[in-house]
Structure formats: C-alpha cells, structure tokens
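Dear colleagues,

As part of the handover before I leave the project, I'm documenting each prediction I ran so the next person doesn't have to rerun anything. This entry is a single chain, and its sequence is reproduced below.
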Amino acid sequence: MKSYEVNFDGLVGPTHNYGGLSYGNVASQSNSQQSSNPKEAALQGLAKMKALMEMGFQQGVLAPQERPDVAALRRLGFSGSDAQVIERAAKDAMPLLVASCSASSMWVANAATVSPSADTADGRVHFTAANLNCKYHRSIEHPTTSRVLGAMFADQKHFAHHAALPAVAQFGDEGAANHTRFCRDYGQAGVEFFVFGRSAFDTRYPAPQKYPARQTLEASQAVARLHGLGDDGVVYAQQNPSVIDQGVFHNDVIAVGNGEVLFYHEDAFLETDKMLAELQAKLGKRGGNFQSICVPRSQVTVEDAVRSYLFNSQLLSRADGSMLLIVPEECRGNERVWQYLQGLTSSGGLIREVKVFDLKQSMQNGGGPACLRLRVALNQTELAAVNPGVIMTAPLYGTLTQWVDKHYRDRLSENDLADPQLLLECRTALDELTQILKLGAVYPFQIN
C-alpha cells in the first residue's frame, strides 16, 4: 500500500501581528511593535501550499484560532461584554491583550507531535497536542488545536488523539518542532527522533544560561509512551545549550530531517557522534540506510542559520529518490548561506534542488517554511479517512484566497488590537472557514 508524508500548513489568522512575545526568538523580538499585514501573510502561506500541491506533494490546511481569546482574558479577571473585556484589557493590561491576539497558531509545527501507524503499538496514527506552556500566548492554543485536529482526523479506527501534557515546566512540550522521523518508506516502521533542551529532573544534563529550553526530556518520553513507541524505534538527543542561547529556540531552527536523511548544523547537538551512531543502528535494523549532511560552522555560522532560517526548511522526497529543499527568501539574502546552498546542490548529493519562497510576514515574526507545516505520514486508507475538506486542491486554493481577500485587513498595529470590531471580523471569518473546510463547530464562540 502506498504511503505519503502529507504537509498540513497553518493558515495565518486575521490577527497576525508583531507583538514580540517570544523571548528567545530573535526575529520575533527584533520586529516587535511593527505594523503587520495579515492579508499578505495569509496569501504568502497559501501560495506555498499551492506550489507544493502543484509539484505533486500531498498538501493540507490547518485552520487558525479564534483571536482575541476573550475567554482567556475573562479567566484573568476582565469582565463585562466581549467588547468591554477587550476595552478594559487595552486600558489596564495591554500586554495581556496583545498576547490574547497572537496568531502564533499559524506555526503548526508546534501544534502537536504525530506518530504514524507503522510505529505505534495499536497501528493507529497518534496525535498529542503540544502544551506550549513556556509562553503564555501559545499555552492557550491546545484546547482548540485538539478540537481542530479531531475534526480533521476523526475516524477512531485510524486515528488516536491525546490531550496535552500537564501544563507545568517539567513537561514543557513544543510539538513537532523538536521531533522528526526517519524511515526507508513512509509506510514502514521508522525511528522517531526527539530533541530536548533540558531535563526537568536529571541534573546531569546541562541547560542554557540566557534563553529558556522549551522542550524537556521528560515531555518527549511521555509522548513516546502515549504513542506506544518501542525503545528500538526511538532516539533522544539533547540540543546544544549554547545554540539555544544564540536564538535556536527549537530544533527545527538548526536541523531538519526526512526519509533517511538528517540535515543539521555542526553545533546543533551534544554528543553528536553517539547520536548519529544510534540513529544509524536503529534505522538499519528497520531496513533503512541513515545518512547525514553536516553543515560546518566554518561555512555557515549559527548566527547565519538563525537569521536566514536555513534549517527551518522543508526537506521533501521526490519520485527519483533525490530531495528538494524549500527555503525562505532570507537564505538567498545571506551570502554565506546562499553560497553553501549553491555548492550543496551542484555536488550531485542527496539534496539536488533548492526552491525559494517569500514568507516575509511569517519570517519577521520568527517562523519559516518548516514552522508553517505539520507533517503526517499516512497510508492510502488513512489518507482516505482524513476530512476531505482540509486537503488542498485548486478549487480550495481559489476559495481560500477569496476568503482572505474578503475578511482580512492589510495593516494591523498594536492599537488596532483594542478595536472590538476585530473580534467580530475574526469570528465572522472563522465561522465561514469552518464551513469551507467542513470542520463543524470547533471554536469557543460556536460551541458556547
């Protein structure tokens, strides 16, 4: 039976803004308070989805969240009508209003961790929504994320859904941004690779000194247990604390993997040789031939990697066995990174082609091509069981671009977030979107 890796890209929400909320994310902090363009952001993301679909890759859409999150503001003591809650928050606690308006759910690499049926004990595809408890504005996402994923992957015969881990620091979980999977074929048993920044309970593991390590070893181990993964199909690796302190807040900012290949920076991990040997041995026992491509610091510095998001790219397998790398425009703008990529693709190695996409609106807020997609490996039967409304087609692309043109603003500043009309615009847009994507009632305003 044929299997696929389907990329479900996050649709940028109507409240896309530069709130500078993500400490440790250099791009997010450096562009704080600038005016954003939600319409352009959504259309840039849709253009990438359409392009990958036209290249023959399976492509899906993951809906944004309702923002501002009035219910979250009510839990923090603001009362009255929805409009009054927003007005009072703007007057008394503008940072909380900004956080409640964040469109960060667009980066669905953080939505969940996904294990394919070939790896799990019960033979189903498992999803665990990420608690994202390191940042308040992201910690409020997982209830809606779980409902949306449940509406997309509803057939319990094929799909299993787990609630987010306990929302405490010891189980900080950032989802697929710190997880990848190696396999010979998407439908065959593979090796799941969990990368953590620190251990909550074991002091033998070093921790960064400047920026927080968002993923714990204990969270990764818990997800592996929930998904029914065997020890012979799991590898844990620690992210280098020094690169976290340079702005590498997730592993997908310093490494990307696909199929049998890991593309990574020389400084990405601790005990790299031991980790590579374990991956090679475990994948070998499952019929795979693990291969790695190390980018030396002498050619691309960590700073170059963070500024260009070279590794926050999509590494895609093509029919001829070669790989395609999807990178943001910022890679072409960095001389050292672009020179490295030109040499990489001309060497006749595994990565034969690089395609560049303009994702400036997302990039300025700290998310590149890999942040915008959640990878789900599915066999033909499972793909047929996915809600068809969320699978990208040419007609759906046309409908969604019209929907964005109809509902999105082309400029949004911090002051605009205090406008109660923005909430009404968002709800109207999302109510229509759930009909387009055939999701049913997944948002609080539709349920309560």
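The domain at 3-67+102-447 is CATH 3.75.10.20 (L-arginine/glycine Amidinotransferase; Chain A). The radius of gyration is 21 Å.

All the best with the project,
I.
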